[in-house]
């Protein structure tokens, strides 16, 4: 899942970005409203974490501009303003969620996760495909009841494929949503990651393959080929 | 609940009812007097007719009644009566209508001046009488022969008078009733209509609360008397709105200034606990920087709070301005040079009364802002007059607007809404002005030709 983080406090920006990356998200950062707006319009993000008081262009202005241009990306407003009027203004401007500083990091991560889930029309944190069960809240994966050990990024990749189950997911989509967009277009990092994931979820010889390759198109996660 | 309209309705109705009542009563009494007087005049004329027939001869009173005169006092009609007595009280003549009865003597005794009184006639009906003494004319027409007086009482039935007075009383009472009804019908409606703008004003005022301070009373639609009130209320609302807005802004700014470093600290700590392997020396340096910033913020807020409670005790003494300004500027000179700023320090010798510690703080704040906010390659000019007035002017960014001047001394105000540079928390100018006031100086600011100028000097009384 790819997140855009727009925050003017460099320390907060660094800490939140670190926390999101360590949770497996691909994170782009911006320190002012104009850069944030440019990034939000240039890439497909699964969620945006947006501060309100920003240099050059404030967060509410960025939010309104995105909504007026038809961008439906889920946006969480992150701000020190905590009055009911401020919350109402933010939500009426088109925000999907509102978090007041200071906040618990786990709460921010949970809210971002919920927003990403909503981006794919899902409300349940659990996804079950055949005997594969992914619990995004608990950050656990089991196959036929046996736990599968995945890195944060592998877990994000599996969840992304699972949220789009039955769809052909292109390498470009995976690069855009799981990686920071910083990877070399000629590299085979996506193929390697998918290969590694396949091996890890194939917990036994009898386990049916779930990730199928559509040559020249991408990958599909589905019980049947 | 006390209602102005109900009270006015009650009082106005009562006053009008009393006024109408008194007026009608007065009218009735005047008419009563007038009609009674006319009746009395007619009665007196009748009595004078009788006196014209009386004569005296040799001390004896005689009466020669003509048939025409006596017809008015006949027994059949029994409505008019007279009785003529001599001075010794003996009856000389009386009307046939009296038969065997007698008329009463005047209540206060007989006198030449006519007396009128009411009494019951011999036939039992109410009557009115006139009585007086007169001197019958002498039979020989010689005035000296008239030596005796006679007493005449003439009475008439007052039926007609009473009937007229009764009709008059009924008419007055009827008019009174109608007027009273009209008062109770018209007054409430007139008052309701007249007081409608006041009620509208009250209803609108009742809807105003802290959340609707932007509302204003439509003064143009109101009567002149209420326009003044509405105007004053609108002024008050405007001041309240500005005050609430300032307070809201202050709270939001204060929340931002405190919550952001707290959020930074918390996220630092949580990251370090969650991913201990990611902890590096940078984390501790960040923690220290945040703590120092919060300490500076709290120190300034406390100083401001003391200033508000007038606990900033300035110790004023003559201060050599030029060396003080040069000394305060020295630490900023290097930063100004690094930013390529042109600096002009021209301070004439002057020794105004000031607290050197507070004055240094004010100047340090102004210089700090000037060095940080003057665009690269801009100019800073510090001038001091022989009267001890200082002026610190610096170029500002093109987006610095005249309306910013209204907020420049507000707490936490910075041109940029976001707090990118953590060195400035937006309290310095507010604090500088509090210091200036504490030592009897004043600090003002204005924008002139793309330059922000601060004027500092002893306050003019």
Descriptive overview:
- The complex is a heterodimer of chains A (225) and B (461).
- Chain A contains eight helices and eleven strands.
- In chain A, β6 (126-129) and β7 form a beta hairpin.
- Chain A is an alpha/beta fold and 225 residues long.
- Chain A has two domains: 2-119, Rossmann fold (3-Layer(aba) Sandwich); 126-221, Arc Repressor Mutant, subunit A.
- Chain B has 461 residues and is α+β, with helices and mostly antiparallel strands.
- Chain B has three domains: 4-166, 2-Layer Sandwich (Beta-Lactamase); 220-308, Orthogonal Bundle (Helix Hairpins); 317-458, Histidine kinase-like ATPase, C-terminal domain (Heat Shock Protein 90, 2-Layer Sandwich), CATH 3.30.565.10.
- Chain B has nine helices and 15 strands.
- The longest helix of chain B has 51 residues, at 224-274.
- Chain B is rod-shaped, with a radius of gyration of 53 Å.
- The chains are: A alpha/beta (225), B alpha+beta (461).
- The A-B interface holds A 8-9, 11-12, 15-16, 18-19, 22, 31-32, 51, 53-55, 58, 80-83, 86, 100-106 and B 248, 251-252, 255-256, 258-260, 262-268, 270-271, 274-275, 278, 286, 289-290, 416-420.
Q: Helix and strand layout, with pairings?
A:
The complex is a heterodimer of chains A (225) and B (461).
Chain A: E1 2-6, H1 10-22, E2 26-30, H2 33-42, E3 47-51, H3 59-68, E4 74-79, H4 84-92, E5 97-100, H5 105-119, E6 126-129, E7 132-135, E8 140-143, E9 146-148, H6 152-163, H7 171-178, H8 189-201, E10 211-214, E11 218-221
Parallel strand pairs in A: 1-2, 1-3, 3-4, 4-5
Antiparallel strand pairs in A: 6-7, 7-8, 8-9, 10-11
Helix pairs in contact in A: 2-3
Chain B: H1 4-51, E1 54-57, E2 60-63, H2 67-71, E3 80-86, E4 91-94, E5 115-120, E6 126-134, E7 137-138, E8 150-157, H3 159-194, H4 196-206, H5 224-274, H6 281-308, E9 317-318, H7 321-338, E10 342-347, E11 353-354, H8 356-373, E12 379-384, E13 390-395, H9 428-438, E14 441-448, E15 451-458
Parallel strand pairs in B: 1-7, 10-12
Antiparallel strand pairs in B: 1-2, 3-4, 3-8, 5-6, 6-8, 9-11, 12-13, 13-15, 14-15
